[in-house]
Amino acid sequence: MDGPRSDRSERRAARMRNRPAVLVVDDEAQTVTAVKHLLRRKYNVLGATRAAEALDMLDASEVPVAAVLCDMRMPEMTGDQFFREVLQRHPKVVRILITAYANLETLATSINDGQIFAYVAKPFTAEQLERVVETAVTYREMVDANERMTREVTAANDLLTRKNEELQAYTHVVAHDLKEPLRTIAAYTRFLREECGDRLGGEGHRFLDGITRCSGHMSRLVEDLLQFSRLDHEKLDQHPVELRYVLEAAAELVSGSIDATGGSVTLPDAPPVVVGDVDRLIVLFQNLLSNALKFNRQPNPQVEVRCALDGEVIRVEVEDNGIGIAEEQHDRIFHIFERLNPRADFPGTGAGLAIVRKIVELHGGRISVDSVPGSGSTFRLTLPAHQ
Ligand code: ADP
């Protein structure tokens, strides 16, 4: 019988210990006693009849005091002086003013200087007092919970940033280190073909072709991964640049595809001036234009680039009449190495749009796609405009 009862009393003692603490300050001892009596069930109530004693209690209290209730008129220190002092020493303690006289000016001073949370007029009923204290303590609990959550989110964010940096560094090192063995494989394959080609026969040559094809693809993957990870390591070199120059340079770089497909690329008449890293911007549009020509089964692929100035940003659209993209894939295509079509149909590594998105975001912009399978795609992006 002893066990359960002592468990219960221990639990009750723990509950009592964990009650929020409130402090009541009034030069009339009987008011302190009355308030303590009223609030004792829900709170650990501390009491003081002098302001200095109350401040010492706040400084020394082991349990943080959630709220302090103080009379306006006290000897030594007035209520608003006391609240100012509390605000300075313990800003999180919620301050409640109890007063019998409603002098507007003194009230205003307390509210403005002592930043009091609530005001209780004397005489008050038990319910009035309980309601005010409960609201104040809940407010304090919310402030504490908010601070705790902010701390946790900041710590989680810091951890994420650190892990991300580690991952970026790791990706960079892995991609960089893979280049060397890949070069060696390519060199040995070449030697084998040159030195022993006549002894290999048809099947041997097919195997060598397979090795060359695969190591070539792996080289492109590694190069793209390096290009992608370099974007995190190297700072942008941003200046005002004629968007016309960027678009023409990108179109020039895909001129081979334009000729091969019989397609056409239409550029805007008078594009605005963008603020950006010219080399990166050319890479961005080169990728978009080359995709627009590549993922296209029309006899003459049509690509149109449009621009419009919208406040501080330039809105750019790259529209094609290609194969289109199913809506559920619109996010996926911007992830590195994600591809929707077999390589035999459309060659590529799947890094282009991840690089594009990173360049856009490094410039503070956003990118999205609007597309219906069979009806072409429109890539929309924003870039900072030169003001
Ligand atoms: P890659 O071109 O090397 O395949 P990207 O990252 O540039 O890789 O594109 C990812 C995938 O998004 C492509 O494999 C393709 O399936 C799809 N895609 C990109 N651009 C277009 C486009 N203009 N029209 C249709 N599909 C596209």
Task: Describe the protein in words.
This protein is α/β, with parallel strands linked by helices and 387 residues long. Helices cover 55% and strands 18% of the residues. The chain is built from 10 helices and 12 strands. It has a 5-stranded parallel sheet, with helices on both faces. Strands 7-9-10-12-11 form a 5-stranded mixed sheet. Strands 6-8 form a two-stranded antiparallel ribbon. It starts with a helix and ends with a strand. The mean pLDDT is 91. The site of adenosine-5'-diphosphate has 22 residues, from helix 9 and helix 10.
Element-level helix/strand string: HEHEHEHEHEHEHHEEHEEHEE
What's the pLDDT, averaged over the residues?
A: 91
Strand order of the largest sheet: 2-1-3-4-5
- Helical fraction equals 40-55%
Low-confidence stretches: none
Distance between the termini: 82 Å
